[in-house]
Amino acid sequence: MRMGIMTGARPSGDDVNAIGRSITVDEVVALTRRAEAAGFDNVWMANVFSLDAIMTMAIAGRESTRIEVGTAVTPTYPRHPTAIAQQAVTAAAACDNRFVLGIGLAHKVMIEDALGLSYARPARHMKEYLAVLGPLLRGDAVNFDGEEYRVHGLTVGAAGAGEVPVIVAALGEQMLGLAGRQTSGTITWMAGVRTLTEHVVPTISKAASAAGRAAPRVVAGFPIVLTNRPEEARERIGAALAIYGQLPSYRAMLDREGVASPAELAIVGDEAALRAGLARVRDAGATDFNAAIAEVDDGAFERTFDFLASL
Q1: Are 180 and 203 in contact (CB under 8 A)?
Q2: pLDDT at position 25, please?
């Protein structure tokens, strides 16, 4: 199981819209370089209402030499698939094809309530989006007529850019099927070990196999922290992640897992507890672990980062 680090979603006070706004481009570049030097396999960046994740990861990739960089994830609705394809191939060209495009539907509260775009048929939206995006990322021409998108005779490309791998934030059965049939895999959040084992991995793997595709990537994101005060840490994680327990797609995964709070999914405790938690994620079928290190106290990030690097 490959090991990665999550960035881009640091809380900035009580305003949900301000998440990530205290993070600078220089910080992301420094973290990417540090993660690379420590032996991590990848760095993933959330795209919220702060730094643009594709652009920032292109810069971070340009300022590193080996490590994979990716978005986790960039919402599809606000960007036409041809526009995001152009961004993605530019990012790939900037970092010697070490860029992975992670995309997702986001949530009704963001897309419909905040932006005024219809969120009525999200699965259809993603199906059409991938029908346009996929060929473009392979360097092929697109000719597609759908209900949302109609694109004819268009290609995108950049000198030095190869095919850009795409993964989809997929949790439900329809989305996992799409991801398995049409992309390199999925990246999850708020999906516990039971959910990965019984739902995510078998569903996406079955779809990929039926489509004749290679075994899919499953990038599993979890809150994690090395601490000798696990109960206090879980309490703080629960407060920081409370919003995720209220969003319908994540709430469905928490209910499937049989937990009440996002904090119950966190991998928290001493080194033995973290090793055991990571082993459970690996055994569930995850190909990559995406560590969202919970900064529950001074020094929490440093000691957790160093522990994960030692693995």
Answers
A1: yes
A2: 96
Determine contact, residues 238/261, Cβ cutoff 8 Å: yes
- Whether CATH 3.20.20.30 fits 2-218: yes
Measured between alpha carbons, how far is 108 from 100 in angstroms, rounded to an integer? 25
Q: Could you tell me the mean pLDDT of each successive run of 10 residues in the chain, 311 residues long?
A: 90 51 90 98 92 97 98 97 98 98 95 94 97 97 97 95 97 97 98 98 98 98 97 94 93 97 97 98 98 95 97 95
Q: Are 101 and 164 in contact (CB under 8 A)?
A: yes
CA separation, residue 140 to residues 20, 96, 153, 257 (Å):
35, 20, 9, 40
pLDDT at 10: 63
Provide Rg for the chain, Cα atoms: 19
Residues 6+ apart with CB under 8 A from 13: none
pLDDT at 9: 74
Distance, CA of 303 to CA of 309 (rounded, Å): 10
**Whole-number Å distance between alpha carbons of 35 and 44:** 11
Token pair listed for 2:
């490959």
- The DSSP H or E segment spanning 122 is helix 122-138
Q: Which residues sit opposite 225 in a β-bridge?
A: 268
13: left (phi over 0), alpha (psi -120 to 50) or beta: left
> Nearest 5 degrees, angle CA 16-CA 18-CA 23?
130
CA torsion angle 111 50 84 190 (round to 10) = -60
Per domain, the residue ranges of the chain are: 2-218
CA dist., res. 71 & res. 43, Å (int): 9
Residues 169, 132: Cα–Cα separation, whole Å: 18
pTM of the model: 0.95
